[in-house]
Amino acid sequence: MRSLLALLSLAVAAAAAPTHVTGTLSQANGDTVEGVVVITWNTFTSSATVFKAGSITVPIHAGRFDSRLEPGVYTLKWGTPAGPETLNLYVPAAATVDLTACLLTDTSKLPAGDIAQSGASDGQTLVWSAAAGRWQPATITGGGPGGPVTIASVTGLQGALDAKATTSALAAETAARAAADTANASANAATAAALVNETAARVAAIDALTPFSIHFTAELSGFIPFASHHVASAHPIVNCIDAAGSYWIAPITVSPAHDITIDFSSGLPFTGDCTVRP
Fold it and tell me: How does pLDDT run across 68-119, given as a tens digit for each residue?
C-alpha cells in the first residue's frame, strides 16, 4: 500500500508492523465519500521509531477506507460540495481495527494532534511543552506515586491559600459587623420608642397637675372640647370666676367624647375664666 510505503520512508529506524485500518467513510449528509482522502500527522514516536510530520493521499471509492498506519494520531481531510470535512483518528497498536473504533469525536478533550505519542510510564502526567508545541508525558517532582505533594512544591498554591484565608476572614468580619450594626439599630429603635412613651407619660402627668384654663366674654354658655382640656373624666372639676372675682356655680354637661358644655343661662352673660381639672 502507498500509505505504508510513505510512512516507512519517513521512519528513522525500522518499526513494528503497522495497524490495518478499514471501514466506511461517509459525508455529513450521509453520502459515502468518493475520490481521495488526505491523511496528515504530526511528528510522533511509535515502537521507538520517530515518524516526522507529513501527509499522504489515499484513494477511496464508495466510502471504503483501507490503509495501514503506525499507532498514533492522524487527521483525515476530504472535499465535499459544501466544503472540506475533517476527522481525527487515534490508531492503536493492533493487527486490524475498524475505522469507527479510531474516531476521536469528543471535542471537549484535548485535540489528539496536540498530544505527543511517545508513550508514558506509571506516575507521569501531561505537561505543556512550548518547544514542541504540544502536551507530552513528564514526571512531576515532589508528588505522585514517587512522593507526597506538599503545599510548598506547588507554585502559587500557598499564596492562593493565604488569599482565600484572608478573604474568608474579611467576609466573617464583615458579617459580624453587619450583625452588630443590625443589633445596634434595633437597640436604638427600642430606646427611641421608650423615650417617646416616657415623654407622652410626662406630658400627661403635667396635664393632670396643671388645670386647663379658658376665658369667656359675655357668654350664656361655654364649650370646651376634649382636644383642649385633655381631662378624660366623666366628672371633671370645673371652676369659673368672673371678672369681679366671684365664683360661679353653673351646671355642666360632659359628652361621651369628654367635651364639656357650661350653662351660664341662669344669670347674666358670663365674662371671666374657667378651669378644668380631673
Answer: 999 888 999 987 656 678 888 888 888 999 998 888 765 555 555 556 655 6
**CA–CA–CA angle 113, 106, 77 (5° rounding):** 50
DSSP structure string for 50-98? EE-SEEEEEEEBTTEEEEEE-SEEEEEEEEETTEEEEEEEEE-SSSEEE
Say if residues 89 and 21 touch (Cβ distance below 8 Å): yes
Burial class (CB within 10 angstroms; exposed 0-12, middle 13-18, buried 19+) of 254: middle
Q: Which residue has the cell 512522593?
A: 147
**Maximum separation of any 2 CA atoms in the chain, in Å:** 144
Q: What angle do CA 240, 241, 245 make, to 5 degrees?
A: 170
Please choose, from the candidates 40, 51, 56, 49, the residue with its C-alpha nearest in 3D space to the C-alpha of residue 3. 56
Using alpha carbons only, give the angle 151, 144, 158 rounded to the nearest 5 degrees. 10
How do strand 49-51 and strand 134-138 relate by DSSP bridges?
A: unpaired
Rounded to whole angstroms, how far apart are CA atoms 251 and 264? 8
Cell of 18: 503497522
Judged against a pLDDT cut of 50, whether residue 211 lies above it is answered with: yes
